[in-house]
Amino acid sequence: MGAMANHEREDHRLQGEEAVIRVLAPLAEGYAGAFGLKDDCALLTPEPGTELVLKTDPIAEGVHFLPDDAPEDIAWKALAVNVSDLAAKAARPVAYLMALSFPQAPTLAWLSRFADGLRTAQQRFGCHLIGGDTDRRPGPITITVTIIGAVVQGGMLRRGTARAGDTVFVSGSLGDAALGLALRKDPALATAWGLSEAEAEHLRRRYLRPEPHLALGAALREHASAAMDISDGLAKDLARMCAASDCAARVHLLSIPLSAAAAKVLVADPALTDRIISGGDDYEVLATVPAASAQAFASAAKAAGVPVTEIGTVGAGSGIVIEGPDGQALTIDRSGWDHFL
Q1: How many of the other CB atoms lie within 10 Å of CB of 131?
Q2: Which is the most buried residue in 93, 140, 290, 324, by most CB within 10 A?
Q3: What is the pLDDT of residues 249-300, one digit of tens each?
Q4: pLDDT tens digits, 45-72
Q5: Residues 211, 259, 183, 57: is their CA dihedral positive or negative?
Q6: How many CB atoms lie within 10 A of CB 102?
Q7: Which letter does DSSP use for residue 134 in this model?
Q8: CA-only gyration radius of the chain, Å
Q9: Which CATH number among 3.30.1330.10, 3.40.50.280, 3.30.460.80, 3.40.50.720 corresponds to the domain 2-152?
Q10: Fold annotation for 166-323
Q11: DSSP code at position 230
């Protein structure tokens, strides 16, 4: 990118698509089928014994990130939310395509920082940019990533294969990102919630930089009956899994794993329980495991360095129940994020 700076001032908007591509081209280095982003298409050959897993999950300014979020964080999130889907399918990332839509040409400084964020994410997740497109259109910045992953043949987990008698697990902790978004919008909440700066930063970072649990893949393949990532909130995504699997689920509120920061927030404002359950942006793994394999799954996850928590059970019927501390079903004001509600 240093050579680029000789032709474009960092505070000036880039002139032409080729200028944008020159900034992004280094992200394709090391992947022969990307052809240095100089061709119309990329070439990918699956490894013997594997199948390809594909996912597209765009992010848009004002919906998935804020206008003043750092370009590095926006880039990380654009890739991470797609890798999260692969992690829940027990697949590993191989490569990705990216379409960038801008209301006006980006500056060299902004795009360089964005590319730096993508480079860091690529290195963490083990994949390369291999192609895509750029355009200019009215509206906010939109970043559309199509991730390509690989999984052993027959090894991809689905959301529609949970069965009555299974145990429901989630990875990590829930609700941090939703609380982090609230802090990004209103920093004064940190004081109202009694958070230390470290606790507030933890919540903000969970919103800005989700961490897909790729290391959970082997445990999922060996033990899980179904899995998906939690992107729109536990309540909505578990309901989706149950609908696809033609089953029901009961979850115990007190079993839902919380970070120390989120637990402190709920002490200060118990009404935020709804946000923990339905706030979205968790990007954790939701899995069902046959009861006989539950302990083995938990042990395998721990060995992989990924904390998982048993939060409920799958049963016959339909729908989900989240059981409160008194054993009664909670009434949830909003089941989860929906782009069209």
Answers
A1: 21
A2: 93
A3: 999 999 999 999 999 999 999 999 999 999 889 999 999 999 999 999 999 9
A4: 999 999 999 999 999 998 889 989 999 9
A5: positive
A6: 21
A7: E
A8: 21
A9: 3.30.1330.10
A10: Phosphoribosyl-aminoimidazole Synthetase; Chain A, domain 2 (3.90.650)
A11: E
